[in-house]
Design goal:
Length: 446
Amino acid sequence: MARLHDGALMERAAAGLAAAVLDLLGGGYGRRVLLLVGSGDNGGDGLLAGSMLARRGVRVEALLLSDHAHAAGLAALRAAGGLTVREVRDLHPRPDVVIDAIVGIGGRPGLRPAAVEALESFAGVPVVAVDVPSGVDVDTGEVDGPHVTADLTVTFGTHKVAHLVDPAASACGALHAVDIGLDLPEPAVEALQPADVRRLLPQPALHAHKYTRGVVGVRAGSSTYPGAALLAVAGANTGLAGMVRYVGSEAVASRVREAHPEVVGEGRVQAWVVGPGGGNDAAAMLDAARADGVPLVVDADALAHVDGTLPGCVLTPHAGELAGILGLAREEVEARPLAHVRGAADRFDCVVLLKGHRTLVAAPDGLVRATSTGTPWLATAGAGDVLAGLVGSLLAAGLPAFDAASLGAWVHGAAGTRASRGGPLTATTLAGSIPLLMRDLLARQG
Ligand SMILES: NC(=O)C1=CN([C@@H]2O[C@H](COP(=O)(O)OP(=O)(O)OC[C@H]3O[C@@H](n4cnc5c(N)ncnc54)[C@H](OP(=O)(O)O)[C@@H]3O)[C@@H](O)[C@H]2O)[C@@H](O)CC1
Ligand SMILES: [K+]
């Protein structure tokens, strides 16, 4: 920022915002835009973008929600022919889009009554949030009180925590980031991108054999839930590790062999997947796997039996399971997922993967990766078993627990989206699409 004169960053931000609004409107001339303007630089961005839109023939009105407004932005908007008013009743009743420039990264959670009233008056009109939907807690993704729910959020420089972490992330709508040329510090929350995934994905060395690529073991399923064994094995058996072993009752093991003839029985492994469909056997499965001293993926029924610390391992709870482990209500975990996933990673000294609409993966040192892939269609029986198997295969292939869990979550989400194509999918089709997804990804290498 030191290299840029005052206002250069805001100029870039406003230009990116105006371009995104024109794109959304499909043009400028004759369109109507309403700006909701707060007292800080977020309002300044809105006013300046409004002046750029007004010069493209857009009819721009600004509702000033505070006694103060960004002076240069105000002057620019007025010079370009935009109107400023202080009362909702003085506004045109049917704008084509509402721009939320109430507060940005300097705001406190919640909205003041005048902002709530204005938003209610224009309910149903598409909303573009400037930087973040006003009212959410930018640094935690939590919400406390009323907030804007946007159709599009245009952010500047980098994504903020609220863009990646629920519940705030779900209020952002589509996300568009404008590069304004900031030098950024290392983030505390990051989201893997396809190039990161290609870099991290374990690939066989020239002279690899199945043992050097890693062997993953699965202890899952029971007479009540044999399918969980089949699906956890399907997730482990996507070719990312060299071999898969299954250990369980003969009745389940024979069904696993029938479905997956490559899978073998007990022997040495580099990682265990424990718990899916384990029922009453889950505690014994966890003890047996722990005795080997290799990294574990602890899922489903085995999660209730975790005690002490598990360095190098991955826990894969959903919100209800994490609540159970931490002695909280599910709603508490859903309201503050970032805080609780970090807390659990610290408490158990291991990686915790909290499954949800935006899966979060936390390391004991506090670093978090948010998963930006996936589709709501992934909320289907057995999808979690596939994920546990997939993460186990990445652990066995030698990835550190944080990379294995975050890469697994990314691949799982992307494979789900690929298999779904906007429609329903089953866990079996999800598992089948994982190798195809990785082939597409690796084909784009270079
Ligand atoms: N940093 C950068 O590099 C760049 C930053 N840029 C932009 O600047 C934005 C940050 O601007 P900022 O720091 O001026 O704070 P901002 O969010 O506009 O408002 C803070 C003021 O609002 C008030 N207020 C607080 N809570 C409230 C509430 N709930 N409801 C209502 N009002 C509330 C409170 O003032 P009060 O009314 O209490 O006097 C407070 O002082 C950033 O998000 C981005 O858009 C870009 O131009 C590009 C470069
Ligand atoms: K905003």
